[in-house]
Amino acid sequence: MYLLLLSLIYLAFISLGLPDSLLGAAWPTMQESYQVPISYMGIISMIISGGTICSSLLSERLTHRFGTKYVTVFSVFLTAVALFGFSLSNSFWFLCIWAVPYGLGAGAIDAALNNYVAIHYTSRHISWLHCFWGVGTIISPYIMSAALLHSSWENGYRMVSLIQIAIAIILLSTLSIWKVNQKNDDEKDEHSLLGLKGALKIRGVPFILIGFLCYCAGESTSMLWASSYLTQARDISKEAAAAFAALFFIGITAGRFAAGFISEKIGDRKMIRLGTTIIILGIICMSLPIKTDVAALAGLVVIGLGCAPVYPCIIHSTPSHFGSNNSQAIIGIQMASAYMGSTFIPPLFGLIANHISIKLFPVFLLLFFIMMILMIETTYKKVN
């Protein structure tokens, strides 16, 4: 029962990852279909992120009232409906409307399951949890590619929506399995809600929130701007840059799978430090002033590998640092901080690249990752 429930949670996290890379894969075709500027993808993305931030902040209240299992099932259904709504939209503004439930569903399930696994399972399992999110992000572009090749982008969204519905039905039909951890959950439910103000008063919480925001800012900026940096600043071909940008995602996914085997022996703190060290080495490789492309391309993959353990280990260490009774509220706020970093910081670098120079990409990343580790280390001092 224990492992079966874990398998269902992994399945739910695949469903969380499926929509995340779908919009980017489909947008070139969608943009032509709706005859809107290519930049309009940012509008949809920010609406999704806004919904995700709101539901992350409400996750403690929702989980306390309905329980993790019901929040999970409802969130998957909500996301499935939103994706199907995308496929039926006959104008760009309908996409914006459907982006609201799209984001609300993602934020609720993300915060609820991260907290549940952090409390009930070991660090290796939360690393693998995020590995399965990566599996979802890798699968959906191939689904969209097949749909574009044989039919239309609308069918791509419909196919992913149907997969989401199937996953939701599986989760709904296996609700009784969640009773394996029911006793601990009941004990936790006896405590009052912490809330945003209460969470911020706990020693170390503001610092971990800033650190998490900085991490997600650096990760998202790497994902979105790496190809442009390689082509414009390093004169690397678009084909090679695109291929290695894709390997960044694979690097994170593979790194999280590998981290699951060593995280329990090394511990969350050392894993975060190790990951940060690898990230910095990758940034140095990317910015070396040498003619060969190998160092710059390899540096991008190394950054992905370094990013792999940071997010899961921050989440897993939250109950031990701040208490399992407070972790749902704090993880929900962490998710909100994460999405704020990934939503607003990459466009900031876009302005820097446009008005100053895209060659500042490695420096920009280095600043955020150094700030991240400084804030995390400060958190450790506060909670000890």
Describe this structure in words.
The chain has helices at 2-17, 22-34, 41-57, 59-66, 68-88, 92-120, 123-150, 153-173, 182-189, 195-200, 205-232, 238-266, 268-287, 294-307, 310-322, 324-355, 361-383. It folds into two domains: 2-174, Up-down Bundle (Growth Hormone, Chain: A); 197-383, Up-down Bundle (Growth Hormone, Chain: A). The chain is mostly helical and 384 residues long.
Short description:
This protein is mostly helical and about 375 residues long. Helices cover about 85% and strands about 0% of the residues.
Largest sheet: none
Strand-residue proportion: under 5%
Q: Say what the CATH topology of the largest domain is.
A: Growth Hormone, Chain: A
Task: Tell me the helix content.
Answer: over 70%
Low-confidence stretches: none
Structural class: mainly alpha
Task: Name the CATH class of the largest domain.
Answer: Mainly Alpha
Distance between the termini: 35 Å
Instruction: Compute the number of helices.
Output: 17
Series of H and E elements: HHHHHHHHHHHHHHHHH
Query: What is the CATH architecture annotation of the largest domain?
Result: Up-down Bundle
Q: What is the CATH superfamily of the largest domain?
A: MFS general substrate transporter like domains
What is the mean predicted local confidence, pLDDT? 87
Q: What is the number of E strands?
A: 0
